[in-house]
Every structure is written in structure tokens, then in C-alpha cells.
Inverse folding.
């Protein structure tokens, strides 16, 4: 079903391309089908339910209502996080009892998620990213990098914002969803990055694809091939385009390189120092940004032109970002780094519990006020399309 | 019975949440009230945002035989719906959009098989013949919203309208976080290709999308000067991109203009075959902006050819002393009072042009 709705046109186009290489002209009909809302997510929810029962991890539910709710629970239906039936169904055994603190903390999370999406992603970063990725000509290195950095921030705040809203909305209703993000731009290395970003997808792929493929059990070479396969599919899951495949393969390659490096460089005192960790963290972020180019670019022409710009490869190039936009990208990205690095070993809940009441009040009021001020139409969540 | 070993529960941070929530509500109410007072103090009043949803709502009012106004901000500011209704016998639908090219709307109406009414189309050559970019995109987005508007978007619009009619700070273009940030006086790098800012709000808009210039802009002062001086930057075309040879770029633009002539003629013909009528109108323009338009887009090159090619009637304000005697306070649009009188004087010419 997912293959038909999401990949039908992509497969037809590629089939057409292969035939054309063999000298056969074939024009397939364009399947003008609507992508059902949340198709990727309820497919994954159903898959996890079926596979967990098959593997004996959990037993089947006797209630169609509970099953339907687990598959289509509205807060996370359209953009995740992917919720395992085993995490959700037990919560339906007894109706959740109202709790003031849980409800209000849910509202705080929804405010935070909306703030991330509407203020940080859409207002502070999206315009610059759109300008850079949409520019038809060559750009200077500074603007190319800033556009990519803006997108790196935008997609984090957009998706983490949605996930936080979903978790908050679920909490208001009395349900508990797991974290989908844990400060990914404070990751030290790529395996750490994937333990912190889109956690529900990476653990899904690990449990239902990487481990069944053999995981680490069949030797180092096979483990690396498995990683590439998993990230290839992870890329394709994001969208029916080769640019997403390249994004996934780049991440697969990063993970393989990291494994090779870890095999040769054993942890010592100096590799554990904060300075080295920060450097590795920055290198991880830069490599992740390079991969984002393929994720965001509409095609390979745009991606290669931008990559060339990032490395100063254009003789005559334009600057298109205003100083204000440059400052916005710089301030938001720096702030994001400071928050994520200072919280990387803890959780949001633990940090909030330690804060004085006045700071919590001021932060919540600030976010709500900024939301009111940031009126008008916002962009749709990026992950709605997946 | 679910047989699962998972038992996950999110931690709730220990804080006096009820007290915090009450305080947050009080702060937000106080801050919003203070911001409203401040916005009103600097001249903003409650009025609707001219959104794609408001446009789509107006588009839905178009009936098969309607009189429809399409075009740019001049048709938007300068057309009085009451006078047009009185003079033409039916209340027109206002579909002109500020900062837009009229062609996508004209094309949409021409492709609407149910429509066989009358179109009053404003022509500002640099806008109507824009080869692409934001002017065309603004119109296309509105047309797309009309065709694809979801129930949620309609509901959101219904909620927004009464709020915008009572709250002054709900101004999408001037008073959002993004707009306020754009107002910061931060100089740009030399040579950076940064597009100019559109003018600030200087109008009120009602549910029929009738725009009226505010008194603070109609009278000499800071706002009027700011709007006036902004036109030259907005109407000056951006420099040709460096990544395309100049000749190739100029050729591309010339081809796009030729295509617009052809497409417009075809759209007018399509409407005419169904019994529809189109009349092109050149609304008043004054001062340095008029001199700039006369010099950069001379009448003979654009207007005369459009009327000739399309075989549609045209009303050029300068041809009639009673229409040419108006002065636009900020060079591009008429004041609210003048727009009524101008429309009253325009009606007989429209009736003649439409054979009424």
C-alpha cells in the first residue's frame, strides 16, 4: 500500500528512464493519487504491531477500538513520532485519570513545540533557507553555508517542534509518548546523532531491519553493509526521490567511517576531553549539514551548485542574504548549540525541575507571547510530506 | 488484555504548575493589552489582513454574470464598489490584489466555463507584464488557495475575521515578529541582492476587500513620505542575474512579454466567445512615479498594443480630463474620498466601453 501511494510515480519514472536507456520510448501515465494523511506513520504503526506479535514480544489485542486508536492516535498520526503498539496499547487498559500537573506540563510542551516550529523554524530560519535553496544562480561560500545551516536548524525545530506538540497533546489526554529527539546537534559522532534524532524511526529501523538483517552478528563487513542498507531505506522512506537516497547513503557512509575509525582509535584520556568532544561534535554537525543539502535540494543540479558554492567553487557568485538574516541564523544556531550541549547528558524534564519557578513562568510566558506576535499563516510541517 | 512488558511513563517536572499557569495567563493578557495600546498609539487600527483566504472568499462570490475587478493595488484602492453597483447595476466582486500581476486571475476566470460576466482589468505595465517572480506568484497563490482551500483554512479564516476587525495588532505585514525584525535598521553588505521591502500598511480593508487609504497616508506626513519614497525601489527592476549572459536574459524577458500579450489576447477571446466582456483600465498615477512609468513603459509600447491585440476596450485615465484631474497623495493610489469621486466619473466610460 505504501509502495503504491508513495512510490508509484517514482518507480514508473525510473522504469521509464531505464527503458529510455535501452532505446525504448515509454510514457507511463502519471498517477495523480492523493497521498493519504499519515500513510507512512500508520503503515509503520501497523507493521510494528504485527511484527511484535509475530516475534512474541507482545500478544494481540482483543479490542478493535484499541488497535485502531494505537494505529491512528491523532497527535502523532501525520508526522510522528512512530509509536510502538507495545508502548501504547498497555496505556489503554485503564482510562487515564485527569491530573492537573500532567495536563499543564502537556500544555507547556505544546507551547514549546509551537514556539520551535512557528517562531524559530518558520520565522527565524525558513526564509533564508528557502532563498538559498531556491536561488537559480551561484552563491558565495558564506551565503551557501548559511542557507544550509539555516535549513539544518529549520528542520530540527520543525520536526522536533511537531514531536514535542504531539507528546504534549498526548499528555494532555493522559497518554505517554517517548522522546523523538534528544539534542541531536550535541551528538559526538554519527551513531550518537542517530540515537538523538528521530529516535522513533532509527530504533524502528534498528529493531525491524538492521537486527533481522544480521546486525553486528555476522562480522564487521556484513554489519557495515547492513548499515548502508538500513540508511538507504531510511532515506527512501523520507521521500520518493534519489536526493533522499543520497542523503540516506551519506549517513550510511558516515556510520561506516565512524565504525572504521573506532576500530583504529581506542578511547584514551585525550579523546575524552571536552575540547576533543566539541571538535568531534562540530565535525559531526558539519557532515550532517553536507548531507542536508541533498535532503533539501529539489534536484541534483541545485545540490551540486550549492555544494560547489559552499567550497568557494564559483568564480562569479552572488550574496543574497540580508545582514538581518545572517544575524538571525547566527543567533538561533548559537543558542541552539548552547542549549543542546548543556542538556545533552540530561533531559528537558530534569532541567525544568531544577529551574526556579520565576524562570519557568517567564520562559512559558515568553514563548506564548512570541506565538501571539508571530501571527499569520505558517508553513506546513516539513514531515507532513513523509 | 494486552500482554506487554512495556510500562512507560513520562516524568512530570516538579513545579507548582497551577500557580505558574495562572501567572502566565495574567502576563500574556497584560502584555497583549499593552501591545494593542501601543499599536493604536502609533496609528494602527483594527482592519482585515488581505490574505489569500479573504481573496478566496471573494472569489467564491463570483457568479456567472458578475462584474469582477482584477488587477493590482490601483484597482484595489481606486474602485468604489457602491458607485460601481449604482452605475453598472450589479455589485462588483473585488479580486484586484496589491503587489500582483492580474494575468493569473484573468486566466482563471477565462478558464472558468461557468463565468460569462464582465472583467474590469487594471493595467500597470510593469506588473501586468512581469515575467514571473513575486508579482505573478502572489496572484497564483491566491488562485490556488481558491481552488484548494481546505475546511480547516476556511474555519481558520472565519475565526480570524472578527478578531482582525477588533484587534489592531493583528497586522500580518507590519506587526508580526518577522516584520518587526525586518524593520531593524541593519545595513546590508554592499552588493547583496536583497529585495526591497513592501510599503507599510496604509489602508483599511473590509470583508468585500474594499481598500481605503488611511487619512495618515492621504495627508502629508511621515507615512506618506515613506510610502512615496518606497515606490522607486519597488518599481525599479532588479539587476539582471550574473549567471546568465545579459543578451540571453533580455531575450528571455522579451519572449515572456510576448507570451503575455498572446496569452492575454487568448484569454480575452475565450471569455468573449462565452459572452463575457473585458475592459482594461489604466488608473491614475502621479508625481515622480508617473514620470518613471511613462519613461520606462511608454504607452505606445504596452497599452496601445494590448488594446489593439486583444480588441478589448480600454480606458486610459489621461485621455479624459475628468479622470486625469486627480492627484495620488503617495503617487500611486487615490485617497479614500477621491476613489469614490473617481469611480463615479469612471462609470460612464465603463458603460460606453461595455456597450451598456
Amino acid at each position: 500500500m505504501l509502495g503504491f501511494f508513495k512510490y508509484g510515480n517514482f518507480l514508473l519514472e525510473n522504469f521509464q528512464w531505464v527503458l529510455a536507456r535501452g532505446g525504448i520510448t515509454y510514457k507511463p501515465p502519471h498517477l495523480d493519487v492523493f497521498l493519504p494523511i499519515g500513510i507512512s506513520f500508520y503503515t509503520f504503526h501497523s507493521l510494528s504491531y504485527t511484527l511484535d506479535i509475530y516475534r512474541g514480544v507482545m500478544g494481540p489485542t482483543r479490542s478493535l477500538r484499541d488497535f485502531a486508536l494505537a494505529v491512528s492516535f491523532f497527535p502523532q498520526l501525520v508526522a510522528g513520532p512512530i509509536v510502538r503498539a507495545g508502548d501504547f496499547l498497555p496505556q489503554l487498559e485503564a482510562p487515564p485519570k485527569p491530573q492537573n500537573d500532567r495536563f499543564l506540563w502537556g500544555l507547556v510542551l505544546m507551547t514549546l513545540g509551537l514556539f520551535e516550529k512557528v517562531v524559530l523554524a518558520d520565522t527565524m530560519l525558513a526564509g533564508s533557507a528557502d532563498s538559498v535553496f531556491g536561488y537559480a544562480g551561484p552563491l558565495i561560500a558564506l551565503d551557501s553555508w548559511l542557507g544550509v545551516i539555516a535549513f539544518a536548524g529549520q528542520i530540527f525545530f520543525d520536526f522536533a517542534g511537531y514531536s514535542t506538540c504531539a507528546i504534549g497533546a498526548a499528555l494532555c489526554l493522559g497518554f505517554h509518548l517517548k522522546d523523538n529527539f534528544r539534542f541531536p546537534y550535541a551528538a559526538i559522532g554519527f551513531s550518537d546523532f542517530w540515537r538523538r534524532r528521530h529516535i522513533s524511526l532509527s530504533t524502528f529501523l534498528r529493531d525491524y531491519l538492521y537486527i533481522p538483517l544480521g546486525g553486528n552478528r555476522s562480522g564487521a563487513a556484513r554489519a557495515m553493509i547492513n548499515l548502508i542498507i538500513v540508511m538507504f531505506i531510511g532515506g527512501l522512506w523520507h521521500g520518493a526521490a534519489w536526493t533522499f537516497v543520497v542523503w540516506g547513503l551519506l549517513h550510511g557512509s558516515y556510520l561506516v567511517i565512524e565504525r572504521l575509525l573506532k576500530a583504529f582509535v581506542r578511547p584514551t584520556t585525550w579523546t575524552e576531553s571536552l575540547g576533543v568532544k566539541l571538535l568531534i561534535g562540530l565535525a559531526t554537525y558539519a557532515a550532517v549539514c553536507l548531507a542536508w543539502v541533498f535532503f533539501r535540494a529539489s534536484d541534483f543540479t541545485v545540490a551540486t551548485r550549492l555544494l560547489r558554492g559552499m567550497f568557494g567553487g564559483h568564480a562569479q557568485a552572488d550574496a543574497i542574504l540580508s545582514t538581518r538574516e545572517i544575524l538571525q541564523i547566527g543567533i538561533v544556531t548559537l543558542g541552539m548549540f548552547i542549549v543542546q550541549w548543556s542538556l545533552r547528558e540530561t533531559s528537558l524534564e530534569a532541567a525544568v525541575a531544577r529551574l526556579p519557578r520565576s524562570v519557568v513562568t517567564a520562559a512559558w510566558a515568553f514563548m506564548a507571547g512570541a506565538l501571539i506576535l508571530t501571527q499569520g499563516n505558517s508553513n506546513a510541517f516539513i514531515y507532513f510530506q513523509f | 488484555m494486552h500482554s506487554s512488558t512495556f510500562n512507560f511513563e513520562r516524568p512530570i517536572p516538579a513545579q507548582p504548575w497551577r500557580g505558574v499557569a495562572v501567572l502566565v495567563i495574567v502576563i500574556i493578557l497584560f502584555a497583549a493589552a499593552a501591545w494593542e495600546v501601543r499599536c493604536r498609539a502609533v496609528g494602527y487600527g483594527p482592519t482585515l489582513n488581505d490574505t489569500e483566504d479573504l481573496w478566496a472568499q471573494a472569489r467564491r462570490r463570483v457568479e456567472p454574470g458578475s462584474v469582477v475587478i482584477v488587477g493590482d493595488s490601483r484597482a484595489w484602492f481606486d474602485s468604489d464598489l457602491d458607485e460601481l453597483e449604482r452605475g453598472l447595476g450589479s455589485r462588483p466582486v473585488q479580486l484586484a490584489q496589491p503587489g500582483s500581476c492580474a494575468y493569473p486571475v484573468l486566466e482563471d476566470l477565462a478558464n472558468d466555463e461557468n463565468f460569462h460576466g464582465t472583467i474590469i482589468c487594471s493595467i500597470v505595465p510593469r506588473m501586468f507584464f512581469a515575467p514571473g517572480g513575486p508579482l505573478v506568484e502572489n496572484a497564483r497563490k491566491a488562485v490556488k488557495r481558491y481552488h484548494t482551500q481546505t475546511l480547516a483554512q476556511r474555519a481558520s479564516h472565519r475565526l480570524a475575521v472578527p478578531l482582525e476587525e477588533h484587534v489592531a495588532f493583528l497586522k500580518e505585514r507590519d506587526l508580526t515578529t518577522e516584520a518587526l525584525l525586518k524593520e531593524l535598521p541593519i545595513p546590508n553588505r554592499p552588493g547583496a541582492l536583497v529585495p526591497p521591502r513592501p510599503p507599510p500598511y496604509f489602508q483599511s480593508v473590509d470583508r468585500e476587500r474594499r481598500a481605503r487609504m488611511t487619512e495618515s497616508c492621504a495627508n502629508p506626513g511621515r507615512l506618506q513620505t515613506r510610502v512615496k519614497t518606497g515606490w522607486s525601489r519597488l518599481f525599479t527592476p532588479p539587476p539582471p542575474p550574473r549567471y546568465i549572459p545579459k543578451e540571453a536574459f533580455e531575450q528571455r524577458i522579451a519572449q515572456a512579454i510576448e507570451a503575455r500579450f498572446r496569452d492575454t489576447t487568448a484569454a480575452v477571446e475565450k471569455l468573449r466567445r462565452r459572452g463575457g466582456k473585458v475592459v482594461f483600465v489604466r488608473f491614475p498615477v502621479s508625481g515622480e512615479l508617473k514620470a518613471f512609468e511613462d519613461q520606462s513603459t511608454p504607452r505606445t509600447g504596452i497599452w496601445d498594443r494590448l488594446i489593439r491585440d486583444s480588441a478589448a476596450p480600454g480606458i486610459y485615465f489621461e485621455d479624459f480630463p475628468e479622470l486625469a484631474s486627480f492627484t495620488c497623495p503617495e503617487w500611486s493610489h487615490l485617497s479614500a474620498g477621491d476613489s469614490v469621486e473617481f469611480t463615479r466619473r469612471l462609470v460612464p466610460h465603463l458603460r460606453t466601453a461595455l456597450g451598456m
